Hints:
Shape: globular
Largest sheet: none
Distance between the termini: 11 Å
Amino acid sequence: MTDVLGLAAIVPASAGACCTVGAWRPGRAVDVVAAVAMVAAMVDGAFGPRVLPGVLWFLVLAFLAVVVAGVHRLQSTSAWRRGSAQQPGAASAHGRYGRLHAALGLLVMGAMGAMGVGMAHDAGAAGMHQHLGVVAVTWQVVLGGLTLGYLVLTVHMLRDGVRRRSRPLPLVETLAMGVAVAVMSAAMV
């Protein structure tokens, strides 16, 4: 059942990545790279043998999360300094928390890939779980907190987007990624 749910999570994640690519604008290339890398990590975890270990995928996605947040900060600050009407931290197509949502999504999916779904394909995974003990429990608690925070933020962003009657593409992207994380969470239980 875990493998089926892991595979099922790829569908909404791919839809979210397609929305990211479809909404591409100049300066958003890092978002496209991050979305494609996240789907690649999910596909790699679902179909064994893995190309990269889950921990390496986590490091790649965590790095991309920092880059996504940093690029957004630089772009919004430089636009404000040039006299643009948009001040730093102002709402984007995804609302005020769009880049936080993207960065947190990369962290959550990377963490799930490192310790959860698809680990049965890794050699020695059962032995690793037995020897980790406290580290594994701590990782799962942190992962649970990240996942819960991500899903709460997703609901908040969708509610605000519907209230403001935002464009549908960012809403579909946010919903698709929220569904992917929820399905991956169910696969880990």
